[in-house]
Amino acid sequence: MKQVSVYLFAGIIALATTGCDLTDEGVLIETSLAFAGVQGLIIDGVSGDCTIQPADDDTLRVDLSYTYPESCFEPRYVRDGVELEIKEDFTGATCSGSAQWVITTPDGVEIEFQSASGSFSLTGHQGGVVVNTASGTIDLVEYTGQADLNSASGNITLETVNGVINANCASGHINVSEATGELDLNSASGNVAVSDASGELDLNSASGDATSDNVVFTATSSFSSASGDAGVVVAESPAYDLSLSSASGNSVLNYGGNDVQGYFEFTARQSDGTIISPYPFDNETTFSQNGDTYMRKSFTRVSGTPVITISTASGTAELKLN
């Protein structure tokens, strides 16, 4: 076992390193650094997972545990004024091992994370966050701020968030609970689901479902899916325009027992689509689109606002009262 302690200056408070044979991959190396006055943090990773947790003071602390051989892996710290960049540097064709970053961060620090296969987890932070990972997962809990989250094949999970959130997955799922603000959520082949939310919601999925439960809309919102379902259960009557659309799935709006008011328009393909409404229609027409004939049915209840559109091609477009 070895233990080395080094004291540095220029905003770096302390460094401690320990090592002992604890894993099948090799020696477990642990390092700790503390930085004062950091306002921007960049983590340029390759495969290491990163956990962000709240600090009790204004000091940013970095705890790194890794089992990569020191001959092929080097953690680097580059300080430029109030910005700190952390890098995972590899040398050689192969370097077997793993790395775990645990970073304790004061509120207000702007965070950027990028990695090929590393996952990102953040709890209890206020400030901007940008995350890009190819196959890692992304988790934000008790977060306030503006976030831009992107994962190719990993899932994105948000819990108790407030702010402007833009999340994109190629093949992963997006799950959000207890959220307020602007949510722009997109997945190519995964499901997008939101529960207990209030704000402006824009949910899109190519082959998955785009659904929400117990939501309050504070601005115009939309839900769309190509081959999945688009479904909404509201916590109170919408006061803003709302659209639900699906190509081959069902589009269902459930008012959850709340008062129904506004202009409602339903669209479905005449040959294999279905329209269901608890209220009679004021107008019924057909129109042609891409060589197919579509039905369009509408009614107005109490007033002409908000405008609610529910559409599908070969599925069911439905309004439910409860």
- Please give the count of helices: 0
Q: What's the overall geometry?
A: elongated
Average of pLDDT: 93
Could you list the spans in which at least 5 consecutive residues all have pLDDT below 50?
Answer: 1-10, 20-24
Order of helices and strands: EEEEEEEEEEEEEEEEEEEEEEEEEEE
The Cα radius of gyration reads 25 Å
Secondary structural class? mainly beta
Distance between the termini: 65 Å
Helix amount, in percent? under 10%
Query: What fraction of the residues are assigned to beta strands by DSSP?
Result: over 45%
Q: Biggest sheet: strands, sense, closure?
A: 27 strands, mixed
Q: Tell me the number of strands.
A: 27
Notes on the protein architecture:
With 322 residues, the protein is mainly β. The chain is 0% helix and 64% strand. It has strands at residues 2-6, 12-21, 27-36, 40-44, 49-54, 59-66, 73-80, 83-90, 99-105, 110-115, 120-126, 129-133, 138-151, 156-169, 174-187, 192-205, 210-217, 221-225, 230-234, 242-246, 251-254, 262-269, 274-276, 283-289, 292-301, 307-312, 316-320. The protein has a 27-stranded mixed sheet that branches. Mean pLDDT is 93; it is low at 1-10 and 20-24.
